[in-house]
Amino acid sequence: ETETVKRDKITCSKDVFEIMKPIMLDLPHEEFWLLVLNRSNAVIKKELISRGGVAGAVVDTKIIFKTAVENLASSIIISHNHPSGNLKPSDADIKITKSIKEAGKIMDIPLFDHVIITDSGYYSFNDEGML
Predict the structure, then answer these.
(1) What are φ and ψ of residue 3, in 5° steps?
(2) Residue 5 pLDDT exceeds 90
(3) Over the stretch 42-99, which tens digit does the pLDDT of each residue have?
(4) Cα dihedral 65/71/73/78 (nearest 10)
(5) DSSP of 67-110, one letter per residue?
(6) Are 23 and 4 in contact (CB under 8 A)?
(7) 6 vs 15, 19, 33, 44, 97, CA distance in Å?
(8) What is the pLDDT of residue 26?
(9) Does residue 64 contact residue 76 with C-beta atoms inside 8 Å?
């Protein structure tokens, strides 16, 4: 008897928010997560990449793509929270997003979105034309 695993499917940034909200809501510190997607945009893995302080988390692009490659990712989504409640991406957020996007191009694992989560809502780099 084989059990089929119901995978979360990503069709828009709100899907990312719904998946990550329960993990990130009410955290006093910043966490940076990776969603690894298959060809039909279903989540095959959720992984905590780094846990930071109140003001930020260090993100290593190599760790992101190591996980992506090991899981034969077709694409990836990154997500992190802003405990401050500020939805605006910081300069560091923009910089790491660009860096991961570029690495994804080379690796043929596109960055689908970067979603910032707060208690009051979310910010999608993709929706805002920042990707």
Answers:
(1) -100, 125
(2) no
(3) 999 999 999 986 666 678 999 999 999 999 999 999 999 999 999 999 999 999 999 9
(4) -50
(5) HHHHTT-SEEEEEEE-TT---SPPHHHHHHHHHHHHHHHHHT--
(6) no
(7) 15, 13, 20, 10, 29
(8) 87
(9) yes
Residue 2's pLDDT is 53
Length of the chain: 131
- What CA dihedral angle connects 65, 69, 71 and 73, to 10 degrees? 80
- Tokens of residue 78, six digits: 């990154």
3 state SS of 53:
coil
Taking the C-alpha atoms of residue 42 and residue 112, their distance in angstroms, rounded to an integer, is: 12
Which residues are 37's β-sheet partners?
A: 43, 75
Give me 4's structure tokens. 């089929």
The tokens describing 3, both together, are: 């059990």
